[in-house]
Structure formats: structure tokens, C-alpha cells
Amino acid sequence: MKTEFNLNELKAADRLPSPSGTALAIMQLVQQNDATVQQVSQLVKIDPALSGRILRFANSAAFGARRPIADIQVAVMMMGMQAVRNFALSLSLISDNSKGYCSGFNYELYWSRSLAISVSSAAITARERTVVPEEAFTIGLLGDIGSLALATAWSEIYGECLGKAEGKQLLALECDRFAIDHNALTLMLLADWGFPPVFLDALKLSFEMKVVGFSRIEQFARQLILARLIGDYCVADETRRTALLPSLIEEASLHAFDEQALLEFIDKIIELWCEWGKLIDVKTDVRQPSLKTATALEPALPGLDLLLVDDDPMMLARLSKQLVASGNRVAVCRDGESALKHVIEHGPQLVITDWRMKPMDGLALCKALRASAFGKNIYIIMLTSTEDEDALVEAFDAGIDDYVTKPISLRMLLARLRAGQRIIMLQRELEKESKDIQRYTAELAAANRRLKSMANTDVLTGLPNRRYALNRLEQESAAALRANQSLSVLMLDLDHFKSVNDTLGHDVGDQVLVHAANLMRKTARSSDIVCRLGGEEFLIIAPNTDSVTALSLAERIRRSIEENQPQGLMLRYPVTVSIGVARSMGSKPSWKELIKWADDALYLVKQGKRNGVKLASSS
């Protein structure tokens, strides 16, 4: 359930993907009620890359630009400040999270697939309007951000989860290890970043794959499902595409596509996908193989990953051949600058470098490596023609671990490599121990979260219990006060419930409670918090919700329970619910008074005909 997981705890620890730089400044500005298009445009202009991408976005044919747009302010006006905010957020997340430390998580494939989904979402909504295509683009791009968040927050443990499970099994494994799955975390993050409930509700429906109605939210959910299938098709190899095509054709038929029209549409999507990949630095040549053809990773070869640096091509050729013959994996560079770039990109275990090179010599390379986070632990052997004591002291001060004098004896070099390998293996063991400690800490934290979840969860219905409800209401009340927003609560009581227990027994009563709880959970919005207070009493907390919307929500829940009776139970009375609604603004009333008001309104409904909804009077 979405209330089991403490998002603020991870945010405080800086362990989640989050916007930065210009994107963060734009988000903070747009949150202000008096923000203007001109102010947002000025922030966009600060970042040339963002400016170019927004102009490209605004001029895209899929988004209906009638004439070329060359001015940032015009582009922001056309797209809307919220769309610009969301687009900047997306680009920031891509830039900051293109790589990571989760061994089982394919970062390139993740962003490639997400971009394919976003382009598909925008094109589909441009074809059959439900939401603005610019907004659909962002929802498609960030619609699986929860997976990236888990890979970022718990790299090693999540890598193990990915190795053990596929599909829906992964969701269950995630809930067991982290007290939340990646779909629920996606909705939580997007809500925290200020995405409107209409998008979150549609995204939630698309995750559940159970869309039955034809409201705007349900139509957008269907579009997201189709976009996700197209995204999977784009990143699949030929074998997997053949397997995916039947379900894709079936889903596309709900959007008035025949097979030929669908294939032509996908061709256009792939073309746009590749264009956008070049524009925002996302690879689109990444492919996910079918399960039948995917093979396990080859075990690592014996020896070391070496980088050999020397400006003498003859020396490079001879030494690299000898080192490879000794069971090592060898890369070569001709100067210090290219070696530094190779270390950044590939991270070798050991560097063998000549001293005298231009433009960056071996001594400068050592100093640069030791001054950086990526090179401070690399074992470095210097090749030198001198045995001058002062020169060698200077080399050790620069950061070398060992040296070999020229002319080079292969036997001596290999002996020095074995000594380096022992040090490297000790470093690996220390790193493994450190990771084990981190894993044990994370597992302990996950166990604590599960215990906390159990303490805050009603065992029968799976809803948050009274303890959680009151704590969460106090938090939401404080948040509403800070943001000067409305906060509404609904007090619900099942009608004639005592007669169910008295005549049919508590087992039947439990079935009625579970049935009603499921309907409440299903009918409530993604931002609402549905709780069981005890017995037949429930509480729904509705953040940023005024009286009219809260009454509409209450009536929708009342009608849902009345119209969906439990099957197979010989009940004396149909299952119905009485609901009292109360709303606060600012500090009036307090959260404790808010519950009392809603309870008083509920009492008036129960005193009347029941099966009704009443808004509390401020008096």
C-alpha cells in the first residue's frame, strides 16, 4: 500500500533521483502562484541546451505548431509553464541518472525504452486528444521512474531482485524487500514533484491493465498502455518483436488502428524516437533480447584489466602482446590525456605508464588520477629509465605504487604485477565487506519498514489503521497550512453492520468489511488516503481538496458501495455507507476538530435515513 513507505526518509538521505540546476529553479518558480511566463523564459534562456530542446519540442509536428517558433518566450507560452517545468525535470533526470551502480539494471535500455514510450504517448494523444501531447510526453518518459529510484537507492539489493524475478513476480519481490513496488514509487515520486492527479490516476490504471470505462482518465490510461507496448516493441530484437506483435495489434485495435496502419504508425514513432535520442543524448540502438536468446554473462577471465600507456608504438605492441599472453586484458593509449579519458570511461584495475611522454607525461597522469575519485584506488606502475633516488621519490610522491626500470624484464614486470594483484584483491575484499555491511544495513532497514508497515496496517483489510490515520492526518494538516491549501476528511460508517455480525457471524462480517474497503480503495483518487479506524468505521484523508470536490468524492464512494453488493451473502440489509465530510483551510479548524466535525456530520446522516452524504457546518 502506498502509505507504508517513507519517501521523506529517502529524500533526506539524498538517495533518490531528483531535479537539479535549472530544472530545480524552474520547478521552484512555477510552484509560486505569481510566477509569469517571462520569468520562466528567463530561466530557460540561462541553459542553452534546454533552450534548444524546448524550441525543438515546440516546433515538433506532433504537437501542432502552426508556424516556426524561434523565441523561447513564445515557446513557453505555447507549451504552458507546467509543461516546460515537466520537460526540464525530465531532461535533468536523464542527465543526472544516465549511469549508476546497480549491476542488474540496464540504464541505457531504461532511458531508451522510456523515450520510446514518451514519443509514442505524445504521438497517440496528438492523434486522439485526451491530454496535451507535451504533458503526455513527460508522463511517458517518467512513467517508470520508480524502477530507477529503487536502482539508485538500493543498488546491490535491487540488482539481486532483478536477477531473481521477471514481470509481476518482480513487483511482489520489491514489496517484500522494500515495502513498496516500482509502480507505487513512481506514483509517489510524480505526486511529490507536483504532477496533477488526473495524470497519476491514468498512470495507475495503466499499471493495473484494467480499464473498463470511457472517461478522459480511462481513455488516457488506454493510450499509456498502447504507448508502453510500442516502447517495448522499439527496444526489442527481431525475435522479441515477433512475439510482441499480436498483443500490440490487439491493443491498437481499441484506437482504430488496423495492422497496416499500426505498422506505419510505429515506423514514424521509431523515426521520431531516433531524432529525440540524438537531441537529448539517449541511445536508441539498445536492444532487449528475447528470453530464449538472452544468455548469462560470461565469467570474468583470469588476470587483470590493464591499461598500458607509452608513446613508443613498438614498446606498446611488444608489451601488450606479452601481457595478454600472460592472461591479462590489455588496453593501450599513446599519451597521458587519452589514458585519463580511458580510465574515466572504463576503470581499469591497474595502469602501467611510461614516464616521459607528451603532452601529458606519466608523472602528470599519476597526479591527475590520484586527485580524482575514479583514480585514487587504481594501482599504478611506472616505467622509467632512471634509478635516481630523488626522481623516484618524486614519482612515489606523485602517487605511483611501484616502478620497473628500462630495459624492461618481462619476468620482473610480471612479478610486480602479481604483487599489485594481491593489493587489488585485498581492495576487492574490503569493498565486498563494505557492500555486505551496506546490504545488511539495507536489509535491516527493509525489515524495520516491514515491521513499521505491520504496526500501521489493518490486518483484515490491508488499509492503514487508526494509528497511521491520525499521524498522517496531522502531517497533511501541517502541509496544508504551509501551502495554504484545503484539506478535507471523510468519516464513513457501514450501515446496519451490527445486524450482519449478530445474524450471520463475524466471518461474514469480515467479508463485508473487506468488500467495502476494496471498493473505497478502488473508487478513491490516487492522492487520497483510505484508512480503517476500527469496526465498521473508515476515514479518508483528501489533501488539497475543497468542499465541493470532497462531497463529489464521498457521493462517488457511497454510490459505488450501494451499486456493487457482495456476491453470495444472504444479507438482511444491502451494504450501504453513511459519510460525513469536513474541510479545513489554513489553521481553522485544527485536525482534531476536523475529525469531530466530520463525525458530527456522519452522526446526522446515521440519525436520518442513512446511506447518505453530509457536509459539516462550520458552526
Name a few traits of the molecule.
five-stranded mixed sheet, 59% helix, Hypothetical protein af1432, 619 residues, Rossmann fold, alpha/beta, 26 helices, five-stranded parallel sheet
Please give a structural write-up.
This protein has 619 residues and is α/β, with parallel strands linked by helices. It has 26 helices and ten strands. The chain has four domains: 1-12 and 101-286, Hypothetical protein af1432 (Orthogonal Bundle), CATH 1.10.3210; 18-96, no CATH class; 305-429, Rossmann fold (3-Layer(aba) Sandwich), CATH 3.40.50; 466-615, 2-Layer Sandwich (Alpha-Beta Plaits), CATH 3.30.70.270. Helices cover 59% and strands 10% of the residues. A five-stranded parallel beta sheet has the order 2-1-3-4-5, with helices on both faces. Helix 4 packs across helix 5, helix 12 (182-192) packs antiparallel against helix 13 (197-208) and helix 13 crosses helix 14 (216-235). The longest helix has 46 residues, at 410-455. It is elongated, with a radius of gyration of 30 Å. The relative contact order is 0.06.
Portion in beta strands: 5-15%
Separation of the first and last Cα atoms: 36 Å
The total count of helices amounts to 26
Q: Can you tell me the CATH class of the largest domain?
A: Mainly Alpha
Give me the CATH superfamily of the largest domain.
Answer: Hypothetical protein af1432
- Approximately how much helix is present in the residues? 55-70%
Major beta-sheet overview: 5 strands, parallel
CATH architecture name of the largest domain: Orthogonal Bundle
CATH fold node name of the largest domain: Hypothetical protein af1432
- Given as residue ranges, the uncertain stretches (5+ residues, pLDDT < 50) are 291-301
Instruction: Round the Cα radius of gyration to an integer and report it.
Output: 30 Å
Mean pLDDT: 84
- Using DSSP, what is the number of strands? 10
Query: Which secondary-structure class do the elements indicate?
Result: alpha/beta
Question: How many domains?
Answer: 4
Strand order of the largest sheet: 2-1-3-4-5
Overall, the morphology is: elongated
